[in-house]
């Protein structure tokens, strides 16, 4: 598995978990972008 795939899946997991924990914030992806 390439680094890019790991990075993308990690961001996706962060987004999903963040969305579950903080639906109003929309996850950690907004902070990273």
From TrEMBL:
Q: Which domain of life is it from?
A: Bacteria
Q: Which organism is it from?
A: Litorivivens lipolytica
User: What name is this protein filed under?
Assistant: Uncharacterized protein
